[in-house]
Amino acid sequence: MKVKLNNGVEIPAVGFGVFRAESGEQTKNAVKWAIESGYAHIDTATIYKNERSVGEAIKECGVNRNEVFITTKVWNDDVRGRKVREAFEYSLNELQTDYIDLYLIHWPVDGFEEAWSVLEELYLEKKVRAIGVSNFHKQHIEKLMAVAKIKPMINQIESNPKFNNQELINYCCENNITVQVWSPLGGKNTQILDNAILQEIADAHNKSVAQVVVRWHLQRGVIPLPKSINKERIESNIDVYDFELSDLEMKKIMEMEEGQRAGPDPDNFDF
Ligand code: NDP
C-alpha cells in the first residue's frame, strides 16, 4: 500500500525504523530482513550513525535503488551551524546513493527556517524527491510557512495509543501534510505491548498487539515506522493487511489516551 504526498510522490504506507540499531551487522541484518519481508521504506537519520549500514544492506539485497524509499534527517548541530548542504552530502555518501527520497529537518531548532531554504534548493535540484520536518508543532509549521516557498510534504511526530497526538495529526491533514509516526509501538514504553485492552482486540483477530497497533495507525491515515532488530518481529509487524479494526475497536484504542509522551517534547528539549 502507498500514500500520495502533496507533490504527487508515492511513499509506502509502513516504514521500517532503525533508531538504536547498531551500525554494522545488526542494522544490516535488520534492513535485509525488512526488505525480504516486504518493507520498501527505511527511516534512518544522521544521528543514528547507521546510514552506511542501511546503504550497504540495500545494495547487498540486490533490489533496485528505486524499489526502496529512503528517509534520512539533518541533525540539530548542522541546522544550528548552517551546515545543511554539507550534512546532506555526508548522508548521500554514507548511504551510497545519488538521491534521497525524503529529507527531514529532525527537530525545530534555531535556524530551521534557513535550513528549510536549503532543503528547498535540494528539492529543486532533484537531489531529494520530497522534503519535510519532524517534531514540528503547529506553531513551528506556521513559522515555517511564513517563509517557505515549498510546503513540507511530511511531518514526522510521536504517536502511540497512550499519546495519540491526534490534534496535531488533524492540523497536518487539514494542511495536506502527511504524518509519519515515530515510536508507533510506544518505543521504550513497553506497557503498550502488554496492555489488556489491546490484547483483547488482538485475540479477537488472532493477531499480535504490535500488529493491532500498526493497523490502528494505518486506519487513522498515518504512516507508522515500527523498529525491530528481531527477524520474526520484523516480519510480523508488517503482516497487517489481512484484517480490519472495527469503528468500535478504533474508538477503544483512541480512548487509551493518557496525554503523556514517551519521548522528548519538541517545546522543551536540550539537545
Ligand atoms: P517503536 O515504537 O518502533 O518500538 C521499538 C521497540 O519495540 C524496540 O524495543 C523493539 O525491540 C520492540 N518491538 C518491535 N516490534 C515488537 C513486537 N512485535 N513485539 C514486541 N516488541 C517489539 O520505537 P522507536 O522509538 O524505535 O520508533 C520507531 C522509529 O521511528 C525509529 O526506529 C526511528 O526510525 C523513528 N524515530 C524518529 C524520531 C524522530 O525524532 N523523528 C524519534 C524516535 C524514533 P526489538 O528491536 O528488540 O524487537
Mean pLDDT: 97
| Tally of separate helices | 11
Can you summarize the main beta sheet?
8 strands, parallel
Rounded to an integer, what's the Rg over CA atoms? 18 Å
Please estimate the helix content: 25-40%
Low-confidence stretches: none
State which percent range the strand residues make up: 15-25%
- The largest beta-sheet arranges its strands as 3-4-5-6-7-8-9-10
- Kindly report the oligomeric state of this protein: single chain
Bound molecules: NADPH dihydro-nicotinamide-adenine-dinucleotide phosphate
Distance between the termini: 35 Å
Describe the protein in words.
The chain has 271 residues and is α/β, with parallel strands linked by helices. It contains eleven helices and ten strands. The strands form two sheets. An eight-stranded parallel beta sheet has the order 3-4-5-6-7-8-9-10. Helix 2 (51-61) packs parallel to helix 4 and helix 8 crosses helix 9. The longest helix has 13 residues, at 25-37. The model has no long low-confidence stretch (mean pLDDT 97). It binds NADPH dihydro-nicotinamide-adenine-dinucleotide phosphate. NADPH dihydro-nicotinamide-adenine-dinucleotide phosphate binds at residues 17-19, 43, 106, 134-135, 156, 182-187, 193, 208, 210, 225-230, 233, 236-237, 263.
Quick structural summary:
The protein is of the alpha/beta class and 271 residues long. The protein contains eleven helices and ten strands. The structure holds NADPH dihydro-nicotinamide-adenine-dinucleotide phosphate.
List keywords for this structure.
11 helices; alpha/beta; 15% strand; 271 residues; two-stranded antiparallel ribbon
